[in-house]
Structures are given as C-alpha cells and as structure tokens.
Amino acid sequence: MAEIINLRSVRKGKARAEKEAKAEDNRIAFGRPKKAKTLAEAKKAIEYSRHEGHKLVGPDSDG
C-alpha cells in the first residue's frame, strides 16, 4: 500500500527550503564583518561632526 502524504505540507516544506537557501545566499552577499561596520560608523561620526562644525550660527538664530 502506498504512503499517504499531504501535498500542502510538501509544498510548504519546499518553499521553506528555497527561502532558507536564498537567505543563506543573501547572508554571504550582503553580510559585513564587525570591523567593517564599526569603521563605517566611525567615518559617519567624523563626517557628521565635520559637517556640523561648518554651520554658520548668527546672533539672532535659535540653533
């Protein structure tokens, strides 16, 4: 006698496997190491402070 299977659960399992494979590819392609992230944050902070340092503040302005 043949084994009875639920086609819906088979489809869902296949979709989950495909989604996990795509997620693994994305982790490899778009993931950045911690050193790269901290370097980018430091550069962003330096650029922001440099930009803020060039603001012209007059005597009648609020900020």
Structure description:
With 63 residues, this protein is mainly alpha-helical. It has two helices and no strands. The model has no long low-confidence stretch (mean pLDDT 90).
Fraction of residues in β-strands: under 5%
Residue windows where pLDDT falls under 50 for at least 5 positions: none
Shape: elongated
Task: Report the order of strands and helices.
Answer: HH
Can you give the mean pLDDT? 90
Q: Label the structural class.
A: mainly alpha
- Biggest sheet, in brief? none
**What is the radius of gyration?**
26 Å
Count the DSSP helices. Answer: 2
Number of strands: 0
- Helicity level, as a percent range? 55-70%
State the end-to-end distance: 81 Å
What topology emerges from the helices and strands here?
Blueprint: H1 7-30, H2 34-53
Key traits:
2 helices; 63 residues; mainly alpha
Characterize this entry briefly:
The protein is mainly alpha-helical.
